[in-house]
Automatic annotation (TrEMBL):
Any one GO molecular function term: hydrolase activity
Family annotation (InterPro entries): Amidohydro-rel, Metal_Hydrolase
Record's signal peptide: none
Name of the molecule in the record: Amidohydrolase-domain-containing protein
Positions of the Amidohydrolase-related domain: 273-387
Pfam families, alphabetized: Amidohydro_2
Source species of the chain: Lentinula raphanica
Length: 436
């Protein structure tokens, strides 16, 4: 053996090492369930947005995404000594995974899936329905060795602030309610501005988020059309939003639950959030594309947001979930507007491996590589964070290695793109004090 022989360098070794080991910032996720509520949400929720029922429990388990997830999770249980390595035909591998996790201590389950992810910072939206009742506090997640920050949902803050104003109106007749709407709106929006301003100044808060996509769609109208003042010396035209609030109160009276999904008032709330975000230079994440059955899919494309993006040039927009299946439209917006960024989470593990690669290819068609942000959109179960991490890393490597092999990109450039997508872009956009 020649002692002076040079070590063999594997093809694309730099890109492979970077893709699979470079530290990451998860720029959008949700808290984990507490141990006593570990059964509150079906495990299938990590692979499907379908509501609980046959579409979730039966159909989701028959997707290629689920078959792949089951195989990847099974390997973790086997390597950790939980269960045997043999795969049987009955029950299915997915059912075997569920049985193995059921037999584990919950904290150990969280550790074996969270700690290998290499997440340096975790940005958590704690406004998801059920989080306050069933989930750990966002600060609890620091136990996995990552810095954890908070994302504030604009609509949740608005509902919380509006509720005390509306409760005294529940027993009144319609005409009595309408007489009180304008003064309520004036004070409500004043408090909303104060509340969002305080959140923006909180060092633990790094972003706002809007779910207007779930509350009517992304086709938010301009301020002038809605009656929202466009200059400091102008007055708001509350007449355009009182009917919207009245409809919300009528629903509140009949259901006992306040859910703002009534056109103009939701649009006003978004405008308020964007204005405060621009003033304090804090990004606003928008749910786009992929979502559950409440999403009006026809209005889930970020293409509808173009007028809104132009109206707030000082506000940073982060389009979540690769806007799937409207990924090309999102990439276009990033290419022409300096204040638009593109997250490519949630497609892991909800979309098949081939679909993930296509989505990333579409992201890279037009989107500048300094605007791509990775996330898991992890929620409820630790497995969602694990799958969101390993599948994203694999997809990045697969797509970029193919581009390098065609001679369209140097390997060093491809490795830099991975570093930016996993770490550097989020560090810059959210002004994070975290090192790798």
């Amino acid at each position: 053996m020649n002692p002076h022989r040079e070590a063999v360098v594997e093809p694309l070794d730099l890109l492979r090492k970077t893709a699979f080991t470079f530290p990451a910032i998860d720029n959008h996720a949700h808290p984990l369930l507490r141990s006593q509520f570990r059964h509150q949400v079906p495990l299938e929720s990590i692979i499907s947005e379908a509501p609980s029922g046959p579409s979730l429990i039966q159909d989701a388990a028959q997707t290629i995404a689920c078959f792949r997830a089951a195989a990847q999770l099974s390997k973790v249980f086997t390597s950790s000594g939980e269960g045997g390595s043999e795969v049987s035909e009955s029950p299915s591998l997915w059912q075997q995974v569920k049985q193995r996790r059921e037999a584990m201590d919950y904290e150990e389950l969280c550790d074996i899936f969270m700690k290998p992810c290499g997440i340096q910072a975790l940005l958590l939206d704690d406004g998801l329905g059920g989080v306050s009742e069933w989930c750990e506090d966002w600060k609890w997640h620091r136990r996995f060795g990552c810095d954890t920050k908070r994302i504030v949902r604009i609509e949740d803050e608005a509902q919380r602030l509006l509720l005390p104003f509306l409760q005294p109106l529940l027993t009144l007749a319609g005409s009595e309610v309408q007489n009180q709407l304008q003064p309520i709106l004036v004070e409500f929006f004043r408090r909303l501005q104060v509340n969002l301003s305080e959140s923006a100044k909180d060092p633990e808060v790094v972003a706002f988020k809007s779910i207007i996509c779930y509350r009517g769609g992304l086709n938010v109208r301009p301020r002038a059309e809605l009656g929202v003042a466009t200059a400091p010396n102008e007055q708001h035209d509350y007449a355009k939003v009182t009917e919207s609030l009245f409809r919300a109160i009528v629903d509140f009276q009949s259901t006992g639950m306040l859910r703002l999904a009534h056109g103009e008032i939701n649009e006003w709330i978004v405008h308020w959030g964007l204005r405060v975000a621009g003033e304090f230079d804090i990004p606003v994440q928008f749910h786009t594309g992929l979502g559950d059955s409440d999403i009006p899919l026809v209005h889930a494309s970020p293409a509808y947001m173009q007028p809104l993006i132009k109206e707030y040039p000082k506000t940073t927009f982060v389009l979540l979930h690769a806007a799937y299946p409207f990924t090309k439209e999102a990439g276009y917006l990033c290419s022409v507007y300096p204040n638009v960024m593109l997250d490519f989470g949630e497609i892991f593990p909800m979309v098949s491996g081939s679909g993930q690669r296509v989505a990333i290819q579409q992201v890279l068609e037009l989107c500048p590589t300094n605007k791509i942000l990775w996330s898991t959109d992890g929620h409820w179960h630790p497995e969602s964070f694990f799958l969101g991490t390993i599948q994203a890393r694999q997809a990045l490597f697969d797509v970029l290695s193919e581009i390098v092999s065609r001679g369209e990109l140097m390997e060093t450039e491809a490795a830099r793109i991975v570093e930016q997508a996993l770490f550097w872009n989020s560090k810059r956009v959210y002004k994070l004090d975290v090192e790798y």
